[in-house]
Design brief:
This is Tat pathway signal protein. This protein is of the alpha+beta class. It contains 15 helices and ten strands. β6, α9 and β7 form a beta-alpha-beta unit. It binds flavin mononucleotide. The site of flavin mononucleotide has 18 residues, from α4 and β9.
Amino acid sequence: MPTRRRVMTYGALLAGGAPLAGCDDGDVQQATALLQRRLALPGSVDGHERLRALVHAATLAPSSHNTQCWRFVLGRDSIRIEPDFTRRCPAVDPDDHHLFVSLGCATENLVLAALAHGLQAEPQVGRDGRIEVALAPTRPQLATRYAAIPQRQTTRGPFDGHPLPAATWRQLEDAAAGNGVNTHLVSDTAGLERLLDAVAAGHRAQFSDAAFVDELVQWLRFDADEAAASGDGLFVGCSGRPSLPPWLARRLVRRFLGARAETDLAAEQLRSSAGVLILASDAAAGPAGWVGVGRAFQRLALEATAAGLQLSLLNPPVEVAALRAPFAAAFGLGTLRPDLVVRIGRGERLPDSLRRPPAAVLA
Ligand SMILES: Cc1cc2nc3c(=O)[nH]c(=O)nc-3n(C[C@H](O)[C@H](O)[C@H](O)COP(=O)(O)O)c2cc1C
């Protein structure tokens, strides 16, 4: 049963809607997430409100550890997307690769939302990774990928183990094409087992690093109240794990978090996936190139979502710098930098993650 405090908190959040007595933490989180994901109807907003609607759609993008590491600056006919370095994760992402990939994901959402609202968006990415998006009037177009923005989620549960037709893989690879990004498909059993070995090596390196574990725990949200209070971070229910009172969970979590447990989970995830797409790009690309990787990944994620597929990421082997070169060699990527490891298949949805409101990310 929810506590009285929880019922009141979420009653307030739902702006006087039906009381949530009887809901478990996952239900409460999902009710909040659904409300947060309601996009403004194209044509229903204009001027400043229309730009805010684009920012709202952008904030529904994925970000590493759900840090939402972005700021938006509204102009008259433009929006600037900037990194929020106060939300960087120096342990898992020392070179800010994931931070700029996350900005790219937000950029892609913003471009799709602009088109739906009758604006042609032209993003220019500076060498420092800041993105200036010029907006000009055009005929409104509702793309399938735009409609998929509220549905897209990172689904960390098991998938159904069925393969996907070659035509579907082509469709997904086509969606990711562009922005200097290469895709590499791994769908055979031996390849997936080699991937699992690489993920296991990544977990061993990361979970033996106290700074990595401290940072991860800092971004974990142990119940729906905690997730709603911050509007960011990794709610345990989004990984199919049970909620616990945060004071207790913070005492216990380090006993349960570890390379072996994470690799067991990854084994279940990989062995039930239809396959994995590795995204790789020019090793010298830097922030501007990483924004491009994010745009490509978000196109892939939205295309998959629109096709009724689920996906999640298994990035440890590309996050540990020393493992990147052996990983690239093992999967024939040559001198490219492996950016993201994306597992794809059909599976059940889990609760959606939360976001901070647009007002919190407008500079
Ligand atoms: C650059 C980047 C790296 C990520 N790496 C991982 C990862 O290694 N493992 C994982 O489970 N999720 C990963 N994620 C997914 C985020 O945790 C997820 O996007 C965030 O929690 C918000 O949830 P949502 O995608 O369901 O909206 C990554 C996301 C991004 C953008």
